[in-house]
Task: structure prediction
Amino acid sequence: MTEKSERALLYTENSFNCAQAVFAAFAEDYGIDEEAALRVAGGFGGGLRRGEVCGAASGGVMVIGAAKGHSVPEDAGAKRDCAARVSAFMAEFERRNGHLTCRGLLGVDTSTEEGAAVFARERLFLTKCRGYISGAAELLEELGY
Result:
């Protein structure tokens, strides 16, 4: 386990979601303070609260944007570079994990009462989500973030 993946997992011990854990573990490297990172990523957990794109993957995309996103309207090269990096990250995350969505990764739709009950009963955050969080952080480090 890498330093960033361990740091990301520490955030989960304080009830932060997958996106918050991944983004906050890297944010200060890119001039974003911890509180701002946690706030910005707060709505991305649970696959945008709809079982969609995994929060760990969303957190990874935020890291890539913080590192390589464009901020000058005319900088089409930086925009293309960031897009390519996000595409590569997402493709590798999906290759390693089999899915990009919370529904697919967990096998339940946590946006429903029934799915949320299964998620809690089977402790899927501990048995599955933490692995996606540490894996996303490790992948980011492998990619140079």
Notes: The two ends are 16 Å apart (CA to CA). The chain has one domain: 3-142. DSSP finds nine helices and no strands in the chain.
